[in-house]
Design goal:
Elements (H helix, E strand, L loop, with lengths): L7 E4 L1 H4 L5 H13 L2 H4 L3 E3 L26 H10 L3 E7 L15 H11 L3 E5 L9 H13 L6 E5 L17 E3 L8 H10 L12 E3 L24 H13 L4 E3 L8 H7 L2 H7 L8 E2 L11 E6 L4 E7 L6 E6 L11 E7 L5 E4 L4 E6 L4 E10 L1
Parallel strand pairs: 1-2, 1-8, 2-3, 3-4, 4-5, 5-6, 6-7
Antiparallel strand pairs: 9-10, 10-11, 11-16, 12-15, 13-14, 13-16
Helix pairs in contact: 5-6, 7-8, 8-9, 8-10
């Protein structure tokens, strides 16, 4: 099954946008392998918009820009595959892409066949310049069928920004992951607004098809297209940690958007954290449920509990306030009344520290401003 768990990889857009080229992509391939990302589970290298010439050739086929990709896309795909990774590319359901390159509207089967011949394993399919007379659902269905008829297994990543509530129908048209929001930018408000907007829709994610709240901004520090390109100064390490933990908790695809050739040690370690990735890649792919706030908790922050396979759980605390504080989870709010004698054995997922068995009817955590704490837990008795 494709996308049995949330897809993981790297995409060129957030940092490089129009400046993507062969050297950058091959460098990202090498970094993914040499810096440990491949071993951590990241497998897709995806080229976003701006890779082609402005017009199709005389046969109506897409052509890679020879200045940006002098050896062609088959060469890039072969290099990606030689490293044990998978290769992804970009097109658009509209007549033109978001950056005004040829879209796939009316050319779906031709383009799918071209991608298959090049060795593409993943297609990101955008929504810009989509004609008003056309049908959105049919457009994604058509490309889904074209990919299946191409003769190659290709993961279909739909990107229609939440138009026509895609969480209600994308799975049924054969998509493997679907963008449910507008674009992410390199600031705290952007990624928290995005994840909050999908609180009620992540229940539609399951093996084979995942809600995609957009790519990661971890480690960008204001650089690149979605940072300085839009006037944003980036996030703190604490905020990047909160961002990554949220994506892991909600079983979102983990597509790195920063420059993995030059990632900070903190962010590199964060995005390769085995416990966090295990939460994201849990085979049951259940969304977390939000625990109701209680009157004794002065922070009233966000607390989530996620059911995982093999009777394991994840518990996460998020502090959206502008000050550090203590957050409180009553176990009864997590379905574990004190009088039953059942409790939880807790381990800090970020540090690996074993906290131990909770012997009270509550569990509290100190959480930094704009930060988080996340724990893995197993049922036990007091």
């Amino acid at each position: 099954m494709l996308a049995k768990t949330p897809p993981m990889g790297w995409n060129s857009w957030n940092t490089f946008a129009r400046d993507v080229n062969e050297e950058i992509v091959l460098g990202a391939v090498d970094a993914l392998v040499e810096k440990g990302y491949k071993d951590a589970g990241y497998e897709y290298i995806v080229i976003d918009d701006c890779w082609s010439l402005k017009e199709r050739d005389n046969e109506g086929k897409l052509v890679a820009d020879p200045e940006k990709f002098p050896h062609g896309m088959k060469y890039v795909a072969d290099y990606v595959h030689s490293k044990g990774l998978k290769f992804g590319m970009y097109s658009c359901a509209g007549i033109r892409t978001c950056a005004d390159y040829p879209g796939s509207f009316g050319h779906e089967y031709t383009d799918a066949k071209t991608f298959a011949e090049w060795g593409v394993d993943f297609l990101k399919y955008d929504y810009c310049n989509f004609p008003e007379f056309a049908d959105t659902k049919n457009a994604y269905l058509t490309m889904s069928m074209a990919l299946k008829a191409s003769g190659r297994e290709i993961l279909f990543s739909a990107c229609n920004w939440g138009v026509e509530e895609p969480w209600k129908w994308m799975r049924s048209v054969g998509v493997h992951m679907y963008r449910s929001t507008g674009d992410i930018f390199d600031n705290y408000k952007s990624f928290t607004d995005i994840i909050h907007s999908q609180d009620e829709n992540f229940c539609m994610s399951a093996p084979g098809c995942f809600n995609d709240p957009d790519m990661l901004i971890v480690g960008m520090y204001g650089k690149g297209h979605v940072g300085e390109g839009h006037g944003y100064e980036g996030c703190t390490d604490t905020e990047y940690e909160s961002h990554f933990v949220r994506w892991c908790l909600f079983s979102a695809p983990l597509m790195i958007g920063g420059d993995i050739r030059n990632m900070s040690p903190f962010c590199e370690k964060l995005m390769q954290n085995k416990a966090l990735i295990a939460i994201n890649q849990d085979e049951e792919a259940r969304p977390p449920f939000k625990v109701k706030a209680n009157n004794l908790d002065p922070m009233r922050g966000e607390i989530y509990v996620k059911h995982m396979s093999n009777n394991r759980f994840a518990i996460a605390f998020f502090n959206d306030y502008d000050k550090d504080g203590q957050m409180l989870l009553f176990l009864e709010a997590a379905g574990i009344p004190y009088h039953t004698g059942v409790t939880l054995d807790i381990t800090d997922a970020l540090t690996g520290e074993h906290i131990g068995v909770i012997n009270q009817d509550f569990f509290k955590a100190e959480v930094k401003t704009h930060g988080c704490r996340i724990f893995t837990a197993e049922l036990t008795t007091r």
